[in-house]
C-alpha cells in the first residue's frame, strides 16, 4: 500500500503482550532482594570471607615490652662467678734459681734416652719351674658339655628292663581274686534304699 512495507518495530508494542506489560513485571523468585512476596524463600547461606593470617606477635605493643629474662618465677639470672680482688698472701723467703745445683743430682729430671743396665740375677728370684706343654688338657669336643663346639646328639646304651621281660614269672603277679570287690553304687546309678 503505497510506500509502506513490513518492517521490524523499533520499540515494544503493548498489543503483543497478554499481561499489563513489562512495566508491571512480577518480581523474581531468586535472590534475597526484590523477592516475590507470594512465594516462599529458600534458606539463605552467606559465604564468610577468609580470616586474616594470625600474627605471631600478640603482645600489647612495644610500649609494654617485657624482657625475655622475666619468667613466671621471677627474673632468670644465669650462674656467674663474682669478680673480686686477689687474696692477701703472706710473703715468705723462698730459694732463688741460683740456690740449686743440678750437678749433684743422682738422677736427671729432664727427658733423655732410655739406658739399659747389665746386672746379675737377683738372689730372691723364684726357682719354680713353670708347667710344660703336657700339663694342660684340651677341652672336650664330643658330648653335651663342650666348651667351643655345638653339642652332638648323645646316645647311651643300658641293659634290658626286667619289666615285661620274656623271663619274667607272670605267676607271681596278683590274680583277679586278689582284689576286693567294689560296691556297685560307686560307679553305677545308686538304687533306692528303704528302711523299716
Automatic annotation (TrEMBL):
> Might you report a single GO cellular component term?
cytoskeleton
* Signal peptide residues on this chain, from the entry's feature table: none
Domain of life from the UniProt record: Eukaryota
Alphabetized InterPro entries for the sequence: CIMAP, SHIPPO-rpt
Official protein name in the record = Outer dense fiber protein 3
Organism of origin is Pterocles gutturalis (yellow-throated sandgrouse)
Amino acid at each position: 500500500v503505497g510506500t509502506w512495507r513490513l518492517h521490524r518495530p523499533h520499540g515494544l508494542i503493548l498489543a503483543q503482550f497478554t499481561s499489563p506489560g513489562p512495566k508491571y513485571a512480577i518480581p523474581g523468585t531468586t535472590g534475597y532482594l526484590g523477592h516475590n512476596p507470594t512465594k516462599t524463600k529458600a534458606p539463605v547461606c552467606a559465604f564468610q570471607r577468609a580470616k586474616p593470617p594470625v600474627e605471631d606477635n600478640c603482645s600489647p605493643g612495644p610500649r609494654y615490652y617485657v624482657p625475655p629474662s622475666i619468667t613466671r618465677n621471677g627474673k632468670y639470672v644465669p650462674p656467674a662467678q663474682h669478680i673480686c680482688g686477689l687474696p692477701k698472701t703472706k710473703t715468705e723467703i723462698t730459694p732463688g734459681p741460683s740456690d740449686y745445683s743440678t750437678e749433684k743430682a743422682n738422677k736427671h729430671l729432664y727427658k733423655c734416652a732410655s739406658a739399659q743396665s747389665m746386672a746379675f740375677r737377683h738372689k730372691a728370684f723364684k726357682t719354680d719351674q713353670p708347667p710344660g706343654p703336657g700339663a694342660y688338657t684340651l677341652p672336650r669336643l664330643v658330648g653335651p658339655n663342650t666348651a667351643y663346639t655345638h653339642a652332638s646328639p648323645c646316645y647311651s646304651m643300658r641293659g634290658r628292663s626286667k619289666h615285661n621281660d620274656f623271663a619274667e614269672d607272670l605267676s607271681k603277679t596278683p590274680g583277679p581274686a586278689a582284689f576286693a570287690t567294689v560296691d556297685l553304687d560307686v560307679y553305677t546309678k545308686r538304687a533306692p534304699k528303704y528302711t523299716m
